[in-house]
Amino acid sequence: MIKRLVLGLLLLSATGVYAQEIQVKKLAPQVYVHTSYKQVGEVVFPSHGLVIATKGGIVLVDTGWGNQPTEQLLAWVKTNLRRPVIACVATHWHEDKMGGIDAVQAQNIPLVTSKRTAALAAEHGKGTPDITFARDTAFAVGKQQFEVYYPGGGHTTDNVVVYLPQQKILFGGCLVKDLQTNNLGNVADADVRSWPGAIKNLQQRYPKAKVVVPSHGPWGDQSLLRHTLGLLQDQEK
After folding, report:
1. Statement: residue 65 has pLDDT above 60
2. Is 92 a catalytic residue?
3. Catalytic pick from 34, 48, 62, 155?
4. Of 23, 46, 139, 179, which sees the most CB atoms within 10 A?
5. Contact 5, 76 (CB under 8 A)
6. DSSP designation for 220
7. Is 150 helix (H, G, I), strand (E, B) or coil?
8. Active-site residue among 48, 62, 96, 216?
9. CA gyration radius for the chain?
10. What is the pLDDT of residue 237?
């Protein structure tokens, strides 16, 4: 069964203003994908993160795309899961991943990032995470296991992924492109030279991953990693 929450939809065609609030879809038992949206030019982009429910509380992977959708996500969790959010892990410093930092910190939820992400966030005025880790890290909450892994630079120099070994779900974030995408997207802060190696590192480290979730399009399986690598190889030609 898919649980979905569409908290609001506003379309003002006369002014070209578009805003769609969060959606939450069930991905696996106790694992959900949260999606928020932003209009860039004439295109509305989705941005995904995860909600993982454990007996020890809720862990978010990435905030919503800004404070307002993050507040709505937290309201959804409170209403539907009825457990406290105990942490939010942001996978890199961009607005679509930690733009809701004020919303989570206002509810005393620690924002967790790598030290590299924290430094870049500070450099760009994106806020200060509460907890940082220097290296790849693994932890458990309520018997749910998490792995946070830095495969190398790609979409940004700091992008990490989150793996749920029990469910074999890999959240690739912006490092991974969906099958409908035919380009690398925003590469303003990218490390394109290191990106292919980062994808190969994911393939080698997580060959058992059954579900791969990108940031900005439909999720799927290992074919998303192969597709992303193909896009990068085309870029090199």
Report:
1. yes
2. yes
3. 155
4. 23
5. yes
6. B
7. coil
8. 96
9. 17
10. 59
Structural contact between residues 160 and 201, judged by C-beta atoms closer than 8 angstroms: no
What's the token pair of residue 131? Answer: 């907890």
Phi/psi at 220 (5° precision): -165, -135
- pTM for the whole thing? 0.91
- Residue 201 annotated as catalytic: no
Catalytic residue chosen out of the listed positions 34, 48, 92, 216: 92
Integer Cα distance of 180 and 227 in angstroms? 10
**pLDDT tens per residue across span 212-225:** 999 999 999 999 99
- CA-CA distance, 176 to 198, in Å (whole number)? 10
Question: Could you tell me the end-to-end alpha-carbon distance of the chain, in angstroms, rounded to an integer?
Answer: 44
Structure tokens at 20: 């769609």
Given this model, what pLDDT does residue 3 score?
Answer: 38
Report all structural domains of the chain as residue ranges with CATH numbers, in order of start: 9-236 (3.60.15.10)
For the stretch 154-192, pLDDT in tens is 999 999 999 999 999 999 999 999 999 999 999 999 999
The residue with tokens 């946070």 is 148
